[in-house]
Design a protein that fits this description.
By secondary structure, the protein is α+β, with helices and mostly antiparallel strands. It is built from seven helices and seven strands; from the N terminus they run ααααββββαββααβ. The relative contact order is 0.18.
Length: 160
């Protein structure tokens, strides 16, 4: 069996600065693919990368907001970073997640609840190092953001 070369290619391409300018197109394409496939497939899936859809209530409106994200595997859990494609501002989803204790996740067609924990303090560096080792583009995005400290969250599947 031949290994899928797309994740390796995606990791290399994502380290190119010009890729960050494609964010609006990729986000629209992601939404379209998710809508057409009933949430089963997105751009990251096509590239062979791990992705989840998180749904969390808006911190001001309470209206559920859904976002597709790359995740860093962490055992049976998920780690997500608010890189915002290297933008200077934190992504809105990260503020909503920060205000929540739980969220809903769709992963590989399965929907389940997770507890949300923001990673801070002394615990943050090992999570950051692991994320950059998994997705080297985070280091470039950090530089592009002007050194903004990305919010890091651990999402743990709740017991049934």
């Amino acid at each position: 069996m031949v290994a899928n070369p797309l994740p390796r290619v995606a990791r290399r391409v994502a380290q190119q600065r010009w890729v960050m300018r494609t964010a609006p197109v990729v986000v629209r394409l992601e939404r379209l693919l998710r809508r057409v496939s009933g949430g089963r497939i997105g751009v990251l899936d096509l590239a062979g990368l791990p992705s989840i859809e998180i749904t969390v209530p808006g911190r001001k409106t309470g209206i559920p907001r859904t976002t597709s994200l790359l995740y860093v595997p962490h055992g049976a859990d998920f780690v997500v970073l608010g890189s915002n494609w290297g933008g200077r501002a934190h992504p809105a989803w990260s503020a909503n997640l920060r205000a929540a204790q739980t969220a809903s996740v769709r992963h590989k067609g399965e929907r389940f609840s997770v507890t949300v924990r923001e990673i801070t303090g002394v615990e943050r560096k090992p999570f950051w190092d692991r994320a950059v080792a998994f997705w080297p583009g985070y280091a470039m995005e950090h530089e592009l953001s002007g050194g903004r400290v990305f919010r890091i969250f651990e999402l743990r599947r709740q017991s049934a």
